[in-house]
Design a protein that fits this description.
single chain, Rossmann fold, eight-stranded mixed sheet, 10 strands, 38% helix, globular, disordered N terminus, hydrolase, AB_hydrolase_fold, DUF915_hydro-like, Alpha/beta hydrolase, hydrolase activity
């Protein structure tokens, strides 16, 4: 009986030891990822955010253009679940200081802009916890821009600093057929729209809270030149209404119009002109 008791105790201690070893190994693996990056503060990842109903695949052409231009060799992915859990696939690499993170929202048909902002924040926090990043860039297409804007609307003081923001085909003040009509929205000289939709009214707080003299902004929009002054889905006025929200506080603000058939809303993230603008903006 005594031998059986000693054997049982020995097995329990062995199991506890194995579990402890497993935890140590897992923790060590995370620590190795960070320790490989001796100069963590030098790493400035660029996060790509796709549009409504889309996925990271819509970001891949732009991401590959940055690789071909020599800005980075690293493309990794951050998958965000419906509950906001972020899973990283791939990793940062030593001395590759401008890695790309393709963000993939699994609940990609969620129409709540604030929720997209919370998911964006969860992604930034995950990268901060994993790699101790100090600064980063954001690139959004369509609804991905609302993820960026509502991320910025939240409390980000304890998070890494956003350095550059690229907005492509942004519907900051509505979408055609959903509260907006071609050639109806008017902007004043400061970019203030004559009528404001609900999300835009929420974003007005950024006129006081947008980080002062910190973020360089590039706003890219498409004009099909078919008389609608739009990219087919978003009016140019809606895209350009970003100016009123951030221009007075941004480090710099610039707008670039893309014209022609490849200026259509869903084609802008495959447009070579957009690639060139993106490369030059991030490189400089």
């Amino acid at each position: 009986m005594k031998k059986r008791l000693m054997l049982f105790v020995g097995l329990v201690l062995l199991c506890v030891g194995l579990v402890a070893c497993g935890k140590t190994e897992k923790s060590g693996s995370t620590n190795r990822n960070v320790s490989e990056l001796a100069n963590a503060s030098k790493y400035e990842p660029t996060l790509f955010f796709h549009g409504w109903g889309s996925s990271y695949r819509a970001e891949d052409q732009m991401a590959q253009s940055l690789v071909k231009a020599g800005l980075t060799k690293t493309i990794m992915r951050a998958t965000v679940s419906k509950t906001g859990k972020v899973t990283l696939t791939g990793r940062f690499h030593k001395h590759d200081y401008q890695p790309i993170v393709e963000v993939n929202f699994q609940d990609n048909r969620n129409g709540n802009s604030q929720q997209w902002g919370r998911w964006a924040k969860a992604t930034v926090i995950k990268l901060q916890q994993t790699y101790h990043i100090k600064k980063f860039n954001m690139v959004g297409h369509s609804m991905g821009n609302m993820a960026i804007m509502f991320y910025l609307l939240g409390n980000t003081k304890s998070l890494p600093k956003l350095q550059k923001q690229v907005d492509i085909a942004g519907h900051f003040n509505g979408i055609l057929g959903m509260g907006d009509k071609p050639n109806q929205m008017m902007l004043n000289r400061a970019g203030k729209p004559n009528k404001m939709q609900t999300d835009y009214r929420s974003l007005l707080k950024l006129r006081q809270t947008y980080p002062k003299n910190q973020i360089a902004v590039l706003n890219v929009y498409g004009n099909k030149q078919d008389g609608s002054h739009s990219d087919g889905s978003v009016s140019n006025a809606s895209s350009k209404s970003l100016r009123y929200l951030v221009a007075t506080r941004a480090k710099s603000y610039q707008e670039q119009q893309i014209t022609g058939p490849n200026a259509q809303h869903s084609k802008l993230h495959e447009n070579k002109q957009v690639d060139k603008l993106l490369i030059n903006f991030l490189r400089n």
